[in-house]
């Protein structure tokens, strides 16, 4: 069996499952790379497998880092609106032979891991005062 490259695999995946844009898969691959690098830093050893919830946390961190307050807009444009969407993409890549999986891996690993609104909108909401009507005290500006 001839191994196909990432670009060819994406052509096939997007043709058979048009729910997600091609760029979403490129982002997912980059997020996996980011996740394995982060795990290597924290564990000090090479990472051979990333579980679904670990990948989702890496996707969350990488997306916030890359897109900031535009993260929901970008992900939504690509068709990614939930953790389950990430799982569907992962299993599309597994089916194409690009990602691997263990016997324990399941599409269910991606269900309801976190709420996209909590993960991607809340970090950019303005800080609310602890008591309604009481303004937040900001530090005084430094005069030069």
Strand-residue fraction? under 5%
Number of helical runs? 6
- Basic shape: elongated
Alpha carbon gap, first and last residue: 70 Å
Summed over residues and divided by their number, the pLDDT gives a mean of 90
What is the domain total for the residues?
A: 1
Class from helix and strand fractions: mainly alpha
Helix content: 40-55%
The ordered H/E elements are HHHHHH
- Count the E strands: 0
Query: Would you identify the regions where 5 or more consecutive residues have pLDDT less than 50?
Result: none
Largest sheet: none
Q: Report Rg.
A: 19 Å
Question: What is shown here, in short?
Answer:
By secondary structure, the protein is mostly helical.
Care to describe what's here?
This protein is an all-alpha fold. It has one domain (6-122). It is built from 6 helices and no strands. It has helices at residues 6-16, 22-43, 52-67, 71-78, 83-95, 116-121. Helix 2 packs across helix 3. The chain is elongated, with a radius of gyration of 19 Å. The model has no long low-confidence stretch (mean pLDDT 90).
